Amino acid sequence: MRRLNFTNTQVASSETARDINRGVVLNLIRRKQPISRAELARVSGLQRSTVSLITEQLIREKWVINGPFGRLPRGRRPTFLRLNERRAIVVADLRPNQTTVAVADVNGRFHSQESMPTLSQPAKTAAKLAVSIKHQMQSHPELIFEGVGISVPGRMDAVTGRIIFAPNLKWPEFDLKALLEDATGMQVDMENAANACLLAEAWFGSGDISHDIVVVTVSEGIGTGLFINHHLVKGLHGVAGEFGHVSLDPTGPLCSCGGRGCWEVFGSNRAAVRYYSESAAESESILFGDLMSLAESGDSLALKALDRMAHEIGRGMRAIVAGLAPEEIVLVGEFTRQWAQMGPIIEAEVAAAALVGNPPRVRPAEADPREARLRGTVALVLQRHFSASPESIQERSQDRRLRALT
């Protein structure tokens, strides 16, 4: 399990204090910007002289810039600090049919986006993706690019970074990370799509994230990101959270993973389209977006298909509630546009699964479902610099040693 605590402001007193305090100050600027040095000292508990040294270092590194002057009844006007929005990240959301590539700044604001088809041959997709990444970077010469973050509908090996399980892509094991790093010259960080959505909630959400939260992503398949006791749960081989491939009916339809009756064959976007096609007078081939539009126009068959989808999403979440007992379940997906209809059905299924006390809170994600994965990969890249974890500190120390040798 990996520690993800973006609100921790505890100051260390070991030999790594400088790096830990740097992470604390940088993270406070991110969360509370614009903020003065005096306020940073007050909130962090650090000495003002320490805060000044750290902020000057961050300004030299171009992570932080001086913002507007504050106003006080008397005395010297403070200078407010904020993140340098010229720092940017190239992000990509890899999906079975289409991949979106975008440029975002450190605050998760997007400068540009482009799309490309996702091919069945991983090497060809990697080549096209590398071209798209380089095109996005060349289109913004004014920005300082920190890295590349990619959301994948599958799981990566925790050591090698190779994609090892991506049934909806229908790819074999594949080293996408190494190919992209060689082609672009940038460090590439990859994360499972559901975990990326969890990062988006933790990093860009308006409030503090719950101690125990499960993020459920519903699209071509169903994925789950597990944040238990302030830890992102990875599990053996990095595949923890694949509830979408838990069988609800061993005699059910065949799943892309090779099993039968998995949760995602009943509760995914593709399942909802199937429900609609089965009930339509004519066998129509429609996309999930078309189904949503029909439902929004009041089409009874479309509403019925979404109603069944909601019941199936809720049915699968019963195992999550009984097995993990999270405080909160956050849902990400295009279907949340119909939350007024589908939300109460899902909430009722979750409430029925609670064994003791109040059921978990169930809500749609704050971020637009079309951007949640992209924004999560922004956080994926930035957490190497903003986190005060031992792993991040060690990586920054290695970067400094490498720069000293070159």
Question: What is the strand and helix layout of this fold?
Answer:
Blueprint: E1 2-3, H1 17-32, E2 35-36, H2 37-44, H3 48-60, E3 64-69, E4 79-83, E5 87-94, E6 98-105, E7 110-117, H4 122-138, E8 144-152, E9 155-156, E10 163-165, H5 176-184, E11 188-192, H6 193-204, E12 213-218, E13 222-228, E14 231-232, H7 263-267, H8 269-279, H9 288-296, H10 300-324, E15 328-332, H11 339-353, E16 361-364, H12 372-386, H13 390-405
Parallel strand pairs: 5-8, 8-11, 12-15, 15-16
Antiparallel strand pairs: 1-14, 2-4, 3-4, 5-6, 6-7, 9-10, 12-13, 13-14
Helix pairs in contact: 1-3, 2-3, 4-5, 6-12, 8-10, 9-10, 10-11, 12-13
- What is the tally of helical segments? 13
Mean pLDDT over the residues: 88
Strand content: 15-25%
Catalogue the unreliable spans.
392-406
* DSSP strand count: 16
Radius of gyration from the alpha-carbon trace, in angstroms: 23 Å
Assign the CATH topology of the largest domain.
Nucleotidyltransferase, domain 5
Number of domains: 3
Going by CATH, what is the homologous superfamily of the largest domain? ATPase, nucleotide binding domain
Secondary-structure element sequence? Answer: EHEHHEEEEEHEEEHEHEEEHHHHEHEHH
* Helical coverage, percent range: 40-55%
Principal-axis shape equals globular
What is the C-level CATH assignment of the largest domain?
Alpha Beta
